[in-house]
Amino acid sequence: MGDHKSKHEDPANEQPMNEAEETMPDVPEDNAAGEVEGEEQTNQEMSLKAELEQANDRYLRLYAEFDNYKRRTSKERVELMQSAGREVIGSLLTVLDDFDRALKMMETANDVPAIVEGIELISQKLKKILQQQGLKEMEVIGQPFDADFQEAITNIPTPDKSMKGKVIDEVEKGYYLNDKVLRYAKVVVGN
């Protein structure tokens, strides 16, 4: 076998290095890649910090907005409760004026039927104003007893078997306000 030289061993096959390559220090490739990765990590950390600061800023702003909203609605609720009855009371003042006039007239009046008629008119006016505000009377007499809307004061025996378990008398009227029970009717039930 002959003397075989590979390309790497043959000085004639060697290519001359340029001067820049000769003067450059040998830097391991891993170190250069590590620096690039380090810069990427630093950029990622900076962008994450910026995102975190933005999210924190949005959170603080939303929290402040919500806090302001709670204070404002609380204040509005207090004002609403203080002025809620204002409209109703204002409309009832006319009824109060009518009662004052009726009381003055009763001092000197001799005509009892006229006084009764005047009081009935005032009562109708009051009921009409309250109905306009959403008040509605419960109709209970002759109806079956319903504990959801009525309070039984007593049970009495009834001669009419068809009235058993039904409301015979109403001691105190029940009322709805906007279709919700405002006051339960106090009733007498037949048994």
Describe the structure.
- With 191 residues, the chain is an alpha+beta fold.
- It has two domains: 28-133, GrpE nucleotide exchange factor, coiled-coil domain (Hemagglutinin Ectodomain, Chain B), CATH 3.90.20.20; 135-191, Nucleotide Exchange Factor Grpe, Chain A, domain 2, CATH 2.30.22.
- The protein is 55% helix and 15% strand.
- It has three helices and six strands; from the N terminus they run αααββββββ.
- It has helices at 19-23, 29-108, 112-132; strands spanning 135-137, 150-156, 167-172, 175-177, 180-183, 185-190.
- The strands form two sheets. The chain has a three-stranded antiparallel sheet with strand order 1-4-5.
- α2 runs antiparallel to α3.
Keywords:
191 residues; alpha+beta; Hemagglutinin Ectodomain, Chain B; Nucleotide Exchange Factor Grpe, Chain A, domain 2; 2 domains; three-stranded antiparallel β-sheet; 3 helices; 6 strands; elongated
